[in-house]
Amino acid sequence: xxxxxxxxxxFFLSYFGxxxxxxxxxxxxxxxxxxxxDVDGTPSFTNVKFKLNFSNNTFQIAGAESYPKxxxxxxxxxxxxxxxxxxxxxxxxVKSSTNLVCHILITSDLKDQRIxxxxxxxxxxDNLANKYIPNKIEAGGVIDSKELNHGFIQGIPILHKLSFxxxxxxxxSIVGLSLSIIAVVSDGINTTLKNININF
Length: 200
What we know:
By secondary structure, this protein is mostly beta strands. The chain contains 1 helix and 16 strands.
């Protein structure tokens, strides 16, 4: 009977597209606990409990909480570059397994200009003190693994998506973001967001 329960349990997880990492099953109460459930790759629920009935192969949800919102319609933190030429704001980050995508708004404050975002010198730091360099940037339908060089209109923000891989599964937030920005016709600009706590 125990083997049948295990087979049924894995079938249940696979059928609903639920990862069994960090999940636990209480054999005495037939309760399955899942820390997080993703829907279409987006974290949607946390602390989910299923009550499984092995006699008739049914289940019921014994408890669940909505996953805290991690991506917002407006920026939740901004900073200006040293020369006050560029404003960088972050709308939040979305984590799926060990992949993380952060949504950044960049605005050219003083003039129309071309700006280069250089990934090898950019990074984030998570709440466990791990540092990650982005492996991809996307804006305006253009995707690159090293840098993005494109035009900005003064005062109009452009959304950029920074992708990171191999992010610790135990990490729950980023506490710092450093973005390397270079105005094409001037000296380099470095911007840093500090004292942030962005959940994902």
